[in-house]
Amino acid sequence: MKSTGWKFQGNQGVFSLNMPEHNSYLYFPLVNEAGMMSAITPNLHGEITSSHNTFLMSPVSVEDLHNSKSARNFWVYIDGYGAWSATGNSARQNANRFMQQEEESELEAGFLWHKLKRINRETGLQAEVTSFVPVTDDKIELMKVKLTNTSDQPLKLTPTAAIPLYGRSADDLRDHRHVTSLLHRIFVHRKGIEVQPVLSFDERGHRINQVCYSVLGAEADGAEPAGYDPVLEEFIGEGGALDWPEAVVANKKAGAAAGDTLEGYEAIGALRFHELQLLPGQSRAYVIAMVISEDRIESGRLDETYLSEKSFDDLLKQNENYWNDKLATVSFHTGDQQQDMWMKWVTLQPILRRLYGNSFLPYHDYGRGGRGWRDLWQDCLALMIMEPSEVRYLLLNNYAGVRMDGSNATIIGTKPGEFIADRNNIPRVWMDHGAWPLMTTLLYINQSGDLDFLKQPQTYFRDVFVKRCQEKDSHWLPENGNKLLTVNGRVYEGTILEHILLQNLVPFFNVGEHNNIKLEGADWNDGLDLAPGRGESVAFTAFYASNLMQLADVLLAWQENHGVEFIEIAEEMAVLLDSLTTPASYEDVKGKLELLDRYYESVKVSVTGNKLKLSLADVVQDLKLKAEWIIQHLRRNEWITNEEGYAWFNGYYNNDGERVEGDFPHGVRITLTGQVFAVMGGIADDDQVSRITKAVDRYLKDPNIGYRLNSNFGEIQQNLGRAFGFAFGHKENGAMFSHMSVMYANALYKRGFVQEGYEVLQSIYDLSNDFDRSRMYPGIPEYINEKGRGMYPYLTGSASWLLLTMLTEVFGVKGNLGHLRLEPKLRSSQFGADGNAVVDTRFADQQLQIVYSNPSGLDYGSYGIQSITLNGEKVQLRSITRGAAEVDRYTLSALSMNESHIILVELA
User: Fold this and answer.
1) In the prediction, which pLDDT does 204 show?
2) 74 and 195 housed in the same domain
3) How far is C-alpha 737 from the chain's CA centre?
4) Cα 417 from Cα 405, distance rounded (Å)
5) Are residues 132 and 219 in the same domain?
6) How far is residue 43's CA from residue 423's CA, in Å, rounded to a whole number?
């Protein structure tokens, strides 16, 4: 059956979808800051967890969403009809669906709640099931089931809530699944069922367990259930199943009572409610709570707080207000309201990534919690816009993960600044990791003007691995801690600037035989992981070049604005600023590697703790010298033109030392990544950018899935990476990978190629918004596969980049050393019928509404800034040109707090 797709309702991002069960792989996130993380499908499959080791429901992958029978369920035994599932999870309903005898259903969802409405046509019984995770300090998911008799006859009903209680680590799903059930201790309460395994068996060892998993329930007025079925095998019965359980189908009397304790069985939170007669037009509601607690539950407190219809409704309203207020921080109003609402869901995604990390949703079944190094910095891009108050603290703590050899920790703890030695002592270095911290820090400095952040002290990460994980330090012991020490045994601290210099200078010397930076374990594309010996990433060599140039520029601004003349760095680092000591030949690969090895040896065990005082102007000169050398090297050696006359930058060398891109027997090979950073960082001149866009359109643009990550290489590349083992058009091998596509658009906007950048962004939206192809809820996916399906929704760094691109490039609202710069690059179609394009955002601790007025409907390139007013009054500008203007930070800081201020920008 062809879907009609979801539709937005109103202007708060709420959407609805008829017959949602007609679509596979759909799921929706429910989460809170306390650590409850849930996924819920249109028929209430999914999972509930607070960590890798504490799953209330069984952990699931996407295939489990339709293969498994384990789900949140609410059964109703209807006299004269039999068993019926309010969530659609019964063998009878599944069979009816494929015999064209299905019932009506509708999904409705908003920030962050999920409602399923279903009606049994034969009896007229309607069920409305609402689910959310409240914004409280408890790890709890709530579900309200409202039953309504829409027929003209009374209905005699017996309701039963049934939520399977897995209650242990994801590692136990296959490893000792039965044995770990023997650890279960099941307690029956007046309001529900609680499971507390006595031990946990997982990679941490056999430990005493305190965590409890509970299913509690009550009628709308708080009345307790009539009975309980806590043992799974007894609930389903011999030969039964979760989608046709004997306890419900036979309408058996519940087998347990409050006060019972059972041991050693798989558990289920099956709560039997009182039999009732529902008259025509009458409704009855039930509230179910699924709880993960650090110890035995406080049943009285939980009853009072959650288990009534009034409490549920109040908490649901609080939840809606919380998320709507958070997302109102940034919102866009253009000529396309549908796209504006879609962007609200994109705005949510960076927050979801902070809360879930890269795990705990069905497609993200590979994670064990937390985020990677790259994620820390890219997610902060959006947090600076969405949740700016803690960004400085987060950035400062993140730098504690840098090693003195320029690499960094790769296992990130759950708390800011918590870094862990690599799991199972298997080290890996991604060569791009050193590039991202500066980009994020520069955004922070430009937004805040806080240049003195560069002189903040921070520690360094230390573990057994040295020389960028090429060697182990046999003398290092775990009890030494994870901080770098001086020769005197003191914890060493360097400035944030010192950390930044390290992560960008070390790669400059860490080159392969073609004098580009070594690929090592991989770069941004984790799938390029089979070229650690001779592989090189030309793409990220370009990124590091732009970093060196931008760092030089910000240091000059620090000197001009704050009078900083000198900086201090660890004395061992002097060799990396070679032009200040003994100049190296940058053409000499062997010499660069020897210099780098001397540095590695000097910091292998510890550092002296002595500081070297350097002229800031000399450091700037060294950085610019290195940047210019890379730029000229790439333009001279990596710019390729193929037989068809198209030209672009080569992005990689493989483990045989061979250039990856160009004309090959199987066809043209080109990567999008190889173009993005050359464009974004200014390595490509304007003519080269123009030629790159033509090559990308020729070889990577596909009307069915958008801009591919790479062309079809035609062979498994065992000398480059596992990505090429994936089928072409999937994931890192030729899919539309949103992250790189958005960065490509960002790069084009930065360089003034607005039409081309607009087309890239519009293609991502059009593909994601086309539900009949993408089969996903509103938002941007990690990638779009060969069939056009949106894959890995919600948890993707592309959301941060899209939000950043829309705000700072499309709407042109950005910082310049703390001052507000307005430089719109809006197309004529992005203005509303009233000629306005509006963005709400925070800047200088003020909530601003920035209105671009374009009454003549001019396109980008035809309009310029004519005037700017603030709250109706002309404002003194720091500067103004036809294309951009700046408002002084102090003008904004002087405004009254706790209200929105309007900046009107007249375009003509």
Assistant:
1) 66
2) yes
3) 14
4) 19
5) yes
6) 37
888: helix, strand or coil: coil
| Residue 676 falls in which region: left (phi positive, over 0), alpha (psi -120 to 50) or beta | alpha
State the first-to-last Cα distance of the chain, in angstroms, to the nearest integer.
50
Is there a single domain that holds both residue 263 and residue 143?
A: yes
Per-residue pLDDT reduced to its tens digit, 857-892? 999 999 999 999 999 999 999 999 999 999 999 999
Closest to 889 (Cα-Cα) out of 830, 836, 787, 818: 818
d(CA 797, CA 359): 13
Residues in CB range of 85: below 8 A, 6 or more apart: 73, 74, 75, 76, 93, 243
pLDDT of residue 527: 95
Task: Tell me: do 101 and 38 sit in the same domain.
Answer: yes
Q: What is the DSSP letter of 58?
A: P
Interatomic CA distance for residues 456 and 440, integer angstroms: 16
d(CA 564, CA 582): 25
Are 729 and 816 contained in the same domain? Answer: no
Say what the pLDDT of residue 378 is: 87
Block residue for tokens 């799921």: 27
Residues of the chain with pLDDT under 50: 1-3
CA-CA-CA-CA torsion for 736, 740, 742, 745, nearest 10 degrees? -110
Hey, is 227 helix, strand or coil? strand
Torsion of CA 395, 398, 400, 406, to 10 degrees: -100
- CA-CA distances (angstroms) from residue 728 to 698, 714, 733, 736, 784? 17, 8, 5, 11, 12
What 3-state class would DSSP assign to 286?
A: strand
Q: Is 318 exposed, middle or buried (0-12, 13-18, 19+ CB in 10 A)?
A: middle
CA separation for the pair 892, 887 (Å, rounded):
8
Domain CATH for 84 = 2.70.98.40
Contact predicate 627/546, CB 8 Å:
yes
Same domain, 740 and 842: no
Residue 885 sits in which domain range?
811-907
Domains: count for the chain: 3
pLDDT of residue 97: 75
Dist. CA 848–CA 842, nearest whole Å: 6
pLDDT at 699: 98
Cβ atoms of residues 249 and 83 within 8 Å: yes
d(CA 835, CA 40): 41
Choosing from 808, 823, 838, the residue where a domain stops is 808
Question: Can you tell me the distance from the alpha carbon of 305 to that of 300, in angstroms, rounded to the nearest whole number?
Answer: 9
Residue 606's pLDDT is: 96
What is the rounded distance in angstroms from the CA atom of residue 677 to the CA atom of residue 524?
12
At residue 424, the pLDDT reads: 57
CB atoms within 10 A of CB 730: 16
Distance CA 416, CA 376 (A): 10
- Dihedral sign from CA coordinates of 485, 548, 597, 649: positive
How is residue 696 written in tokens? 């990308």
Strand partners, 418: none
Q: What is the spatial distance between Cα 21 and Cα 370, in angstroms, rounded to a whole number?
A: 31
On whether both 667 and 727 belong to a single domain, the answer is yes
Strands 73-78 and 155-165: antiparallel
